[in-house]
Amino acid sequence: MAKINKIFSNILRLLAVAATVVAVVFMVTSHDSAQVLNLTFTAKYSYTPAFKFFVIGEAIAGGYTIVSILLSFKTLFWRLIVILDMVATVLLASSISAALAIAQVGKKGSSHAGWLPVCGQVPHFCDQVTVSLLAGFAAAVIYFVILLSSLYAVVL
Amino acid sequence: MALQNEDKLEVGYSSLQPKPKKWVLLMLRLLAFFATAAATVVMGLNKETKTLVVATVGTTPIKATLTAKFQHTPAFVFFVIANGLASMHNLVMIMGDLFGQKLDYKGLRLAMIAILDMMTVALISGGASAAAFMAELGKNGNSHARWNSICDKYKTFCDHGGGALIASFAGLILMLIISVMSIIKLLIKPKPDSTTVVP
């Protein structure tokens, strides 16, 4: 049972690495520009601190996951992996929440604050950010299952 | 007679020993409950109204009333819901600690507490970070998207929101410590040994 759990956990970690890599790549390569009247309107992920935080958070979580796959046999402090997995889950949840909050404002605008939606002018940027956020959300959900499985492996 | 007194003293001392650790966890949970409840209440009652004179028709000025409410922003709504759920969770855990020592759910009590604590930490962190970045956007605006900052017009709204955010981050740190302590309690749980003799 413990062996099946370990294989299952490692497969999930590989999926989580894939999801975080997709999220980071699609966010970093998303830029678009449009000409509105005589103004150039560019959109890049680095113009928003929330998207920068998202990229950094996903990168840290992805790096940690790769390290944890390599260290998945019983070393001295293998029980510490539960706490580190929890920190990674919290980081992923935090990154995706922040990015989703700002992306929602970018897509729908905020009539009360006088902020116009941006997606109409830079559709390519919005599409890539959508794919990136979906991958980030999948990474967060997968990581929660990884956390449950490592809790089960440690408690048994 | 002296030996009996010593036995009584020893039994009394050993029953007092687990209490200091239990009180530490209880105090932390109480603090986290107050922090998240304060964040919920302060953000939930966050509202500011401003009246502006838009035009003057003859001698009567036409006033427009603009409000800033937390419901206008989905991030703040999520913040209020997340902190509300977290304070409910802490309240239930405190009640369970104080009054429900006998409930065990087939030996899974510690595991359930650890899992629920981890879920609550993830929830609070999501709510706090979404509200924090939304507040940063409201304070600084975004020149690239032509979004103006709103904090200079609605100063009280921004101040109260900032206070709620600080309370929520304090609650997040406390919940992280509580969650780590719950996991440690789960890890050092003494395993039942079939060879011990029950006195």
Automatic annotation (TrEMBL), chain A:
Domain of life of the source: Eukaryota
Protein location: Cell membrane
Membrane-spanning parts: 12-30, 50-73, 80-103, 133-155
Record key words, sorted: Cell membrane, Membrane, Transmembrane, Transmembrane helix
InterPro entries the record matches: CASP/CASPL (IPR006459), CASP_dom (IPR006702), CASPL (IPR044173)
Membrane topology field: Multi-pass membrane protein
Domain Casparian strip membrane protein, chain residue ranges per copy: 6-141
Pfam families: CASP_dom
One cellular component term from this protein's GO annotations in UniProt: plasma membrane
PANTHER family from the UniProt entry: CASP-LIKE PROTEIN 1U1
NCBIfam families found in the cross-reference section: A_tha_TIGR01569
SUBUNIT field: Homodimer and heterodimers.
Family to which this protein belongs: Belongs to the Casparian strip membrane proteins (CASP) family.
Name the record gives this protein: CASP-like protein
From TrEMBL, chain B:
Keyword field: Cell membrane, Membrane, Transmembrane, Transmembrane helix
Compartment(s) where it occurs, according to its Swiss-Prot or TrEMBL record: Cell membrane
Lineage: superkingdom: Eukaryota
InterPro entries per UniProt: CASP/CASPL (IPR006459), CASP_dom (IPR006702), CASPL (IPR044173)
Pfam families xrefs: CASP_dom
Residue ranges annotated for the Casparian strip membrane protein domain, each copy included: 20-173
Cellular component terms per the entry's GO annotation: plasma membrane
Membrane-crossing segments per the record: 23-45, 75-98, 110-135, 164-184
Keyword Methyltransferase annotated: no
Membrane topology value: Multi-pass membrane protein
Family: Belongs to the Casparian strip membrane proteins (CASP) family.
PANTHER family: CASP-LIKE PROTEIN 1U1 (PTHR36488:SF8)
Record text on subunit structure and interactions: Homodimer and heterodimers.
Protein's name according to its UniProt entry: CASP-like protein
